[in-house]
Amino acid sequence: MLKIALGLLLGFGIGAMTRWFDIPVPAPPKIPGALLVVAMTLGYVATDRWLGREPAQSAEACGGPTGEVPHEETSPTDGSPA
User: Fold this and answer.
1) Confidence of residue 70 (pLDDT cuts 50, 70, 90)
2) Would the pTM of this model clear 0.85, i.e. be above it?
3) Mind giving me the DSSP string for the chain?
4) What is the pLDDT of residues 51-62, one digit of tens each?
5) Which residues on neighbouring strands pair with residue 81, listed in sequence order?
6) pLDDT score at 80
7) 18-23, Cβ contacts within 8 angstroms, sequence gap of 24 or more
8) Does residue 60 form part of some domain?
9) Structural domains counted in the chain
């Protein structure tokens, strides 16, 4: 949710600054611009679904939401894995 709020704030800020300083809008014209956004969104979603069909090959090294990578427990006597 924070990313969405920051993205909207950044977008409004860039739009306001370009209007304030009379800089041309950094976007294509209305209809082609809207079609470009739709095409990019569809491409992103299609690629995400296509890549998501196979399980991750490095899932065991993934830190998950906390970022902590699971470690093997070591024996206190010799330092070898338990």
Assistant:
1) low
2) no
3) -HHHHHHHHHHHHHHHHHHHTTPPPSS--HHHHHHHHHHHHHHHHHHHHHHTTSPPTTGGG--GGGTPPP---B-TTT-SB-
4) 777 776 776 777
5) 74
6) 57
7) none
8) no
9) 1
